[in-house]
Amino acid sequence: MLDDRLRLALAGYYLELEDQQLTSLVELDTGRTESILVNAGETDAYGIEAELQAALTDNLSLQASYAWTDSEFDAYISPEEADLRGSDGSFADTQRLGDVSGNDSPRVPKHMASLAVRYQRALTANMQGYAAGDWTFESSKYAAEHNLIETGDRRLVGLQAGVQQGRWDASLWVRNLFDDDTPTDIFRYFDGRYGSLPTYPQAGSSPPSRTPRGFAIPLAPGRQAGITVRIKF
C-alpha cells in the first residue's frame, strides 16, 4: 500500500490437536525422578497474527508485529492434577479429579508483540549513520496444565546507534534497557527433600502424605551493553 511504503500481512488459524505431547514426572527405582512424554487428549488452538512494515519518511522506518493465541485443553485427564487435588490413586478418583479441560495449554503466551523503529541518514558521501530502538512483549504463560504458576508478563527494550561505511559497520547497543527480570520459563519437579512420590494406600487406610512440587526458574539475562564491529567480505 501507499506505493510500497506500507506492507501489512494478516493471518488467522484454527488447530485441533490430538494426543498433544506434554512432560510428566515419574519416580525411578533409584528414588530419582525422570521426565517422560505423555499424550494429552485433545487441544483446541486458534489465533491471529499481524505484521506491519512502514517507511514513514525516506530516513525513518517502522516494523511491528502482534500475535494472539487462545490454546486450551478440550479433553485431558491428568494424573498429576488428580494427585494435587487429593486423589487416592484409584481410576475413579483420577477421572473425577484429574480433568483439566478448559485450562490453558502450558508455555503458550496469549499475547506477543514487537515494535522496532530505525532512523538512518547520510553523514558523508560514503558514510551512513543510524539509530534504532525496539520493544518486545510476551504475556504471562503457565508452567503446567494445572494453571497454578505462571511466569508473568515480560517486556524488553533495546537501543542501538552506529555508522556504516563500505564493508564496515560499527555500533553501540543496549539490550534489556530497564533490566526486566521476568522469568523466561518455569520448570516443575518433585521436591526430594520431602521424600519420594506418594505411595497410594489400600482402600480404608489413612491418606498418604503428598510430595510438594518444586519449581526451577531460569534467571533471565539482565541489562547488557556492548560494541559490535562487522565487516562484509
Portion in beta strands:
over 45%
Largest sheet: 8 strands, antiparallel
Percent helix among the residues? under 10%
What separation lies between the terminal Cα atoms?
35 Å
| Strand/helix succession | EEEEEHHEEEEEEE
Spatial strand order of the main sheet = 1-4-5-6-7-8-9-12
Which regions have little confidence, pLDDT < 50, spanning 5+ residues? 199-206
Mean pLDDT: 88
Total number of helices: 2
Counted up, domains total 1
- Strand count: 12
**Shape annotation:** elongated
What class do helices, strands and sheet pairing give? mainly beta
Over all CA atoms, what is the radius of gyration? 25 Å
Could you list some keywords that capture this structure?
single chain; 233 residues; mainly beta; 8-stranded antiparallel β-sheet; 12 strands
Summarize the structure.
The protein is mainly beta and 233 residues long.
List the helices and strands and how they pair.
Elements: E1 6-18, E2 21-27, E3 33-39, E4 42-55, E5 60-75, H1 79-84, H2 91-97, E6 111-124, E7 127-138, E8 154-165, E9 168-175, E10 187-190, E11 213-216, E12 224-231
Any overview of this molecule?
It is built from 2 helices and 12 strands. The strands form 3 sheets. Strands 1-4-5-6-7-8-9-12 form an 8-stranded antiparallel sheet, with no helix packed on it. Strands 2-3 form a two-stranded antiparallel sheet. A two-stranded antiparallel sheet has the order 10-11. The protein is mostly beta strands. A hairpin with a 2-residue loop joins strand 6 and strand 7. It starts with 5 loop residues before the first strand and ends with a strand. It has one domain. The protein is elongated and about 80 Å long.
